[in-house]
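Following up on my earlier thread - several people asked me to post the actual chain instead of describing it. Fair enough. Here it is, all 270 residues.
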Amino acid sequence: MKTQKLLIFWGILTAALVLSGCAAGYNKASVGLASGGLNIAGIVYTPDSMLPGVIYPAVVLNHGGVKGVEFATRSWARALAKKGYVVILPQFRGQGGSEGHMEFAGGEVDDCLAALEYIKGLPYVDKGRIGMIGYSLGGLVTLRALERTRDVRAAVLVSAISDPEVFMRRLADKKGLAPADLQAHLAELKARNPLPGLGEVTASVLILHGLDDATVDPAQARELYGALKAAGKDVEAVYFLHLGHASMWYSAPMESAVEFLDRRLGHSNK
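Reply from S.P.:
Thanks for posting it. Predicted structure:
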């Protein structure tokens, strides 16, 4: 137990040192996104040394949880902007000042695609070099969005939910959800399972998952990897020892994600 706590401490400290170096080298702006009749709040990060006439690769970064964009997600956005990416973070409906109510990867997919359309419309964005990152619930949103667009060239799924029914059953066990409430949720989530629609995905995909994840079972990541492979998709996976669900707080997953996007989007800021 002491060893595990020490590893967690050093992981957080390392990530803090890496991310603190991203405090400079970017600009930030708040934007409004129209999605299904709702006003969705968004945050756009851009490099601070953009050159006239140059077009830059872009990333749609989908947060996890139910309280809006987390600190770690913002840190990833700053790191990407410093490396020369234009990044947009949609605050999903009902969160972070956005209108509407949370729908658990329902209307949030529309919010994600609205962010994609917004960033495609920026004159300094290269529409042929767009990536997407999704963390936890944002990973499920990302998967469902990839089935509806061909405009994303590379996607990274971090501790992603890929089977919402299995996730809800696991959550119900932890929270003591009443059987009737559980069944109501499962009926709704069945239609949001992305696995049957993976044939529509055209993006290259990187799966990142901690093997100590007690929130989203690593078995989901393995099942997703197998399903994408079986569908003939371009997919890679990296599993991290001793990392739990909060993997975005650690430097190794962020470095893996950036390396993958650089490689797949043909980007270098050197």
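The domain at 2-265 is CATH 3.40.50.1820 (Rossmann fold). That should answer part of your original question.
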